[in-house]
Specification:
3 domains; two-stranded antiparallel sheet; 6 strands; globular; binds zinc ion
Length: about 400
């Protein structure tokens, strides 16, 4: 597993990207006990310097070099595991010195690799903001994927063949599948690469979907003028059992960690429900949708945390997923994702330039009061246009919302 970590802002950006290894066929109870030291850090991956203000061509070349460097480190790291010279056997079994001093006949297989979505894309030469499990088109990431209608899985054998061919047609095919050309060590290891990634509670749910849910609810309640009630109820949730008492309102916390998200999931539904009490009959329908979608997403998270599953619990999880996707648009009002915000910012820059030209052109003709009026009109116009742009582009097209559609199968 690997987990890029931001360490500090105080003395420049300090980051680390450690890789850990463990042995899969030991009990998870032993593996999860810190005192057994069964998870070992084996290397730190290189983190490239962020380039800004360089021409696009140079940036692309630098990124290609970064991928090659990362890949070389991974190749050296994984080589002893997978390409160990072992004359005499063709089956890749070899004698391994174990912790108890005995040698055992072993066949190591890379079985899983836990990482965040963006990190996983970097490790496997996929482009950003695409699904790492399947070839779902970027503009369909928001949609619910029923178990019998899942998209074609990422086929790393095909990517390897196309990358090795390195022809114009092959590279175009790779681009259309959102894959970067080049040697990637994972495609040369005897394993099913698309099965390496496993459902990940921390990255996908706690600091992923639950974080999104929080922000959707915040925008949603602002739009429906219920934020004051929400903050009041939020702050009054009592310390109970092992729940940490809250000294701050929701707005005052800039970033949540996994443990806080887990605690928040215990009371969020009650706070959302209570803050929407009263209102007109027309509002009730909208409020009910919001409550049901909140409940469904929290249920998916709760089910995913079960220590064991059967067909019934997995079907409840699938039902909750379906319920979440139906009417999730209730949260879209006032919400804009990263892409929509970037587009809105570009529009803002363009309109600011137009305002500047207008101001300079009419500098002589405008009286001071006329100038003030024009500038206010410009400000209102820009703010309106930005609002419209965000509203039109707001959507749920991001990989995490899509990836939970693929959780039931690996758990099964
Ligand atoms: Zn997918």
């Amino acid at each position: 597993m690997s987990d890029g970590t931001h360490l500090s802002n105080f003395a420049g950006d300090k980051q680390e990207w450690p890789v850990y290894m463990t042995i899969g066929n030991q009990s998870s109870k032993i593996r999860q006990m810190p005192s057994t030291h069964s998870i070992v850090m084996v290397t730190l991956l290189p983190i490239p310097i962020k380039n800004s203000n360089v021409p696009q061509k140079q940036l692309d070349e630098q990124r290609q070099t970064n991928r090659e460097v990362l890949n070389e480190v991974l190749r050296r790291l994984l080589q002893p595991l997978t390409f160990k010279q072992n004359p005499g056997t063709e089956s890749r079994y070899y004698n391994v010195l174990c912790a108890d001093g005995n040698f055992r006949h072993c066949k190591p297989v890379l079985a899983a690799w836990l990482a965040g979505c963006a990190e996983y894309s970097d490790l496997h030469h996929l482009m950003r903001d695409v699904c790492v499990w399947c070839e779902c088109p970027k503009n369909e990431l928001r949609d619910y994927v029923p178990p019998d209608k899942q998209h074609r899985r990422q086929d790393y054998n095909v990517y390897r063949t196309l990358s090795d061919a390195n022809t114009k047609a092959a590279n175009a095919e790779l681009s259309s599948r959102h894959v970067h050309q080049g040697f990637n060590v994972f495609r040369h290891i005897p394993c099913i690469v698309s099965d390496l990634l496993k459902p990940d509670l921390l990255h996908t749910m706690q600091i992923g979907m639950l974080d999104h849910l929080d922000r959707w609810i915040f925008h949603y309640l602002t739009t429906h003028e219920r934020l004051d009630q929400y903050n009041a109820i939020w702050s009054s949730v009592p310390a109970y059992y092992n729940l940490t008492p809250k000294n701050t309102s929701y707005e005052e916390v800039s970033q949540w960690n996994g443990k806080e998200m887990k605690e928040m999931s215990w009371y969020l539904l009650r706070v959302v429900t209570q803050s929407q009490r009263g209102g007109s009959p027309a509002q009730h329908a909208v409020f009910n949708h919001a409550i049901l979608r909140t409940r469904a997403l929290l249920e998916i998270y709760m089910y995913a945390r079960y220590k064991s599953h059967d067909d019934a619990t997995l079907s409840y999880m699938e039902d909750a997923l379906r319920c979440f996707h139906t009417f999730k648009d209730v949260f879209i009002l006032g919400w804009a994702g990263r892409m929509a915000k970037a587009k809105a910012n570009a529009l803002r820059m363009e309109l600011m330039k137009k305002r500047k030209v207008d101001k300079e052109t009419n500098a002589q003709a405008w009286t001071p009061s006329k100038k003030r009026g024009e500038m206010i009109a410009w400000r209102d116009y820009i703010s309106h246009e930005i609002g419209v742009s965000k509203e039109l582009d707001a959507d749920f097209n991001f990989p995490k919302i899509h990836s939970i559609s693929y959780w039931v199968k690996p758990i099964h």
